[in-house]
Q: What sequence folds into this?
């Protein structure tokens, strides 16, 4: 903790004790590069400064504020959590791990982080960084995410959390993992707990923890159409479930086993009753999500009949596009083809 006090990075979410702001930070920044996530965090809190502000917002407004950060399920969970906090806890984030765990999207880590940092409850908060430090200190092998390995890790972690300043302790452990005890080539020479470290004594620091091999994500072919009419662009709302649920998108999507994108898109539009002629390619798509990769094309589309607005279909003006959550790589594309001015890039 002494090391942490002098070496910690000065990050916006560490300057607050507001439980809601801490909950937002945990939801937004988990498994996200901090440098990439921080601007979103600042904008999100400016847009929704209290639990009530978030709870009273529409899902579209919340997704718009989160747009580009990915992991949109987290945004939905945080939004639902804010409504439950307002309804069941009088708008105050609950203090205990048990109550926090009842909120959507809140697992052991987030509950431990919020309880310890915001309320001083002496419980561990084991993110990937803290887990790696403990695995090396205590030479823990095997899968630490489940079963015996997980129980052993948690028992050790629980026995270590101090009664005073547990939040500082948890953040110190996470910071040590993030900045010193890195997955590769940890800076053991600069480590404040080197003398206690089992892996260092053994001379095999990178052997801990056991790394699970990650499977490669499948590549899926996609195609979308830019269809314009009098300075408006046709947008389609994606279904309520699945990839980018409820985001507004250029019409199109994942294709079957077609030989090329134009044919696939033509079939897709035919099956949905959209009269569109497919034209030349305008841009490439290469976008990786956590669980799949989209590769394909954005093509010109021209209306071949009347296309009217309906619930999930809209002729969108630049102002509509600014207001709505739009698939982020498509927003960049629309800026690139000068349909959107760059000044409308963000909230
Ligand atoms: Fe990590 Fe090295 Fe410190 Fe051990 S000595 S905790 S491996 S940085």
A:
């Amino acid at each position: 903790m002494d090391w942490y006090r002098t070496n910690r990075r000065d990050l916006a979410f560490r300057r607050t004790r507001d439980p809601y702001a801490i909950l937002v930070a945990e939801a937004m920044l988990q498994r996200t590069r901090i440098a990439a996530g921080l601007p979103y965090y600042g904008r999100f809190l400016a847009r929704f400064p209290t639990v009530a502000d978030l709870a009273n917002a529409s899902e579209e407004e919340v997704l718009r504020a989160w747009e580009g950060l990915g992991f949109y399920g987290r945004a939905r969970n945080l939004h639902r959590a804010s409504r439950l906090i307002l309804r069941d806890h009088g708008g105050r984030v609950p203090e205990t791990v048990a109550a926090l765990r009842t909120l959507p999207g809140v697992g052991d880590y987030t509950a431990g982080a919020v309880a310890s940092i915001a309320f001083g409850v002496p419980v561990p908060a084991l993110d990937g960084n803290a887990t790696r430090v403990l695995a090396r200190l205590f030479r823990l092998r095997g899968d630490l995410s489940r079963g015996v390995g997980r129980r052993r890790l948690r028992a050790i972690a629980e026995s270590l959390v101090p009664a005073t300043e547990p939040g500082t302790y948890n953040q110190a452990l996470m910071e040590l993992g993030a900045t010193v005890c890195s997955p590769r080539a940890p800076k053991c020479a600069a480590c404040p707990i080197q003398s206690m470290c089992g892996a260092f004594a053994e001379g095999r620091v990178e052997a801990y923890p056991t790394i699970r091999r990650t499977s490669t994500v499948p590549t899926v072919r996609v195609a979308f159409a830019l269809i314009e009419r009098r300075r408006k662009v046709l947008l389609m709302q994606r279904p309520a479930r699945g990839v980018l649920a409820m985001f507004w998108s250029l019409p199109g999507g994942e294709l079957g086993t077609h030989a090329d994108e134009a044919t696939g898109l033509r079939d897709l539009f035919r099956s949905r009753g959209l009269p569109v002629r497919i034209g030349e390619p305008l841009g490439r798509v290469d976008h990786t999500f956590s669980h799949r990769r989209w590769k394909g094309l954005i093509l010109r589309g021209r209306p071949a009949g009347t296309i009217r607005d309906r619930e999930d279909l809209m002729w969108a003006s630049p102002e509509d596009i600014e207001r709505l959550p739009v698939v982020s790589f498509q927003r960049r594309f629309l800026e690139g083809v000068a349909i959107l001015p760059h000044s409308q890039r963000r909230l």
Observations:
- The chain has two domains: 2-183+190-207, 219-344.
- Residues 72-88 form the longest helix (17 residues).
- Strands lie at 219-229, 232-237, 248-249, 252-254, 276-288, 293-303, 313-316.
- Confidence is low (pLDDT under 50) at residues 343-347.
